Amino acid sequence: MNKLFAASLLAAGLALSSAAQAAPTLLNVSYDVMRDFYKDYNAAFQKHWKADHQEDIAVQMSFGGSSKQARSVIDGLPADVITMNMATDINALADNGKLVPDNWVSRLPNNSAPFTSATVFIVRKGNPKALKDWPDLIKSGVEVIVPNPKTSGNGRYTYLSAWGYTLKNGGDEAAAKKFVGELFGHVPVLDTGGRGATTTFMTNQIGDVLITFENEAEMIAREFGRDQFEVIYPSVSAEAEPPVSVVDKVVDKKGTRAAAEEYLKYLWSPEGQEIAAANYLRPRDPAVLAKYTDRFPKVDFLSVEKTFGDWRTVQKTHFNDGGVFDQIYPAK
Question: Dihedrals φ, ψ of 329, to 5°?
């Protein structure tokens, strides 16, 4: 009887262990400047999941330069979801190993981008170099801090915004290439991601202006204090549409598709949109956006696809090896 009792206890223990293991765990591979947002969002989603499913869910995070992160997933990092700051990095998962389908962008609303963001200039307190718009950045003696467009979506949006500024002000492609080349000639160091660039500017005190997303400006304020810098909105900003996707090959292997899909869909929920606004990401929900006009100045956004073509063309032309960026910024 003792043996039978022990065996039944063991069986019960194994059943409990199995049930505990059944609670899903998701890995979200994301980009540098989203740390604060996902810290808040994950906690809210876990409460939502527990209420709906009566079980816990774990969410693990990985952060870095966006293109580097996409490469890690292509190379085997088992991301259930990937949350990038531009479509090129998720397209790379379709083009390399068919980790997501070619039509991934149409599976969720708004081209699978739950919020938007603008490019801003972070300048030293008092704006001593009077930097107001893109041409000011190529004045003599101005040092510009921006991450590498080949590894960072932040860097790519800066590049495209500056290029778009030239076109919008009557310049042709040759003039745009010349201007962007001059701009990157003022960049003393190319970090791989947005957080590295922030460290260079704020901690190491290198440079006169940091170009980044407006939500990163809020993260800098929280970390370093609001009296350390000023935020300038340039006249032209490419509209950042940070997209998200389930990584199909991973979730189907792990059996986490339902949880991963719900995790992403909840980004469009009223709570998800409120958390976005609280972290200075522009919500897609007009009702939520209307509540926060104080923190989201009206911006004359430049549409990347209408200006430059589809994202695969943009990547191939400008940022792949041997592309325009390599031509204007030879290795130093």
Answer: -130, 70
Q: How far is CA 116 from CA 11, 27, 53, 324, in A?
A: 51, 23, 30, 26
CATH superfamily, region 119-239+300-328: Periplasmic binding protein-like II (3.40.190.10)
Q: What percent of the chain has pLDDT over 90?
A: 84
Q: For residue 43, how many other CB atoms are within 10 A of its CB?
A: 12
Q: What is the pTM of this model?
A: 0.86
Residue-wise pLDDT tens digits, 96-142:
999 999 999 999 999 999 999 999 999 999 999 999 999 999 999 99
Nearest CA-CA partner of 189 in 179, 199, 197, 198: 197
CATH number of 2-115+241-290: 3.40.190.10
Over the stretch 276-299, which tens digit does the pLDDT of each residue have? 999 999 999 999 999 999 999 989
Distance CA(11)–CA(141), nearest Å, equals: 73
For the record, the structure tokens of 54 come out as 């009566």
Q: Delimit the CATH 3.40.190.10 region(s) of the chain.
A: 2-115+241-290, 119-239+300-328
Which candidate, 211, 235, 218, 190, places its Cα nearest to that of 278?
218
